[in-house]
Amino acid sequence: MTAGRLRELHVPGSPLVLPNVWDADSARLVEEAGFPVVATSSVAVARTLGYRDGEQAPAAEMLAAATRIARAVSVPVTVDAEAGYGLAPSELAERLLATGAVGCNLEDTDHARGQPRDAAEQADRLAAVREAAGEDLVLNARVDVFLGAGEDADEQAVLPDALDRARRYLAAGADCVYPIHVRAPDVLRAFTEGVRPAAVNATYLPGGPDLTGLAGLGVARISLGGGLWKATRTWLHGTLTALADGKLPY
Predict the structure, then answer these.
(1) What Gene Ontology molecular function terms does this protein carry (predicted)?
(2) What's 218's DSSP letter?
(3) Cα–Cα distance between 46 and 194 in angstroms, integer?
């Protein structure tokens, strides 16, 4: 499946819903349920490989997992590539395409310093990935300044920085921008309106707007992130606890 097909599915107001997966089996389940795209979750993949999120897992292992996922399904696959694992843009593009994926998330957190990368530096990096990949990779540029923002007022305070970053990333060649973990509906609406008509990715968060509500805010893509993996893990923990107490769980 082509990157072009993935791009076509990003429609503001009628968003692409991505139940993020962590292995080939969960990917097959997503495809069998009728979803047109499979997306990976870096936290879920890393934890199933025995590492923590935040580029603690080796790039080779994360990309090998992406390869297994892409091989298992016939729909487009987009990979959560975190901040690029320290790889040069050309190598990152080459290795992502080699997995069989046609899209990726690239976040603007500098994990070595534990803070957002300079916006101009990140824009240059995105432009280099775009040049190396051509149109064969759908670039979803993550904007991380809302992480840890907390209250609505804090989200409003960082909104100008988020919009500046998003506009720079779009100008550099990103197909979509992802202000991860925005919780306040008015802030998310201001963000989508501020980059219109560009595609915006939002996270579905328990207690926040539901899928219909997010669509009404103008987003073109909705990610569940590590949500399904966490829900699965919670179920498994409860089942194992019951079994340890001598109860048959099913």
Answers:
(1) lyase activity
(2) T
(3) 34
Which amino acid type is present at position 147? L
N- to C-terminal Cα distance for the chain?
39
Distance (Å, whole) CA 32 – CA 17: 15
**Is 50 strand, coil or helix?**
coil
Give buried/exposed letters for 42-74 (b at 16+ CB in 10 A, else e).
bbbbbbbbebebebebebeebbebbbebbebbe
Could you tell me which residues are beta bridge partners of residue 73? none
What is this structure's pTM?
A: 0.94
Percentage with pLDDT > 70 across the chain: 98
* pLDDT higher than threshold 80 for residue 151: no
**What is the per-residue pLDDT for 1?**
60
Of residues 46, 58, 64, the one with CA closest to residue 229: 46
3-state secondary structure of 80: strand
- Domain coordinates in residue numbering, the chain: 3-244
| Nearest C-alpha neighbor of 48 from the set 82, 21, 83, 80 | 21
CB 150 within 8 A of CB 182: no
**Domain 3-244 CATH assignment equals 3.40.30.10:** no
Report the relative pairing of strands 176-179 and 103-107 from DSSP bridges: unpaired
The SS3 assignment for 220 reads coil
d(CA 77, CA 37): 6
- The phi and psi torsions of 107 (rounded to 5 degrees) equal -95, 160
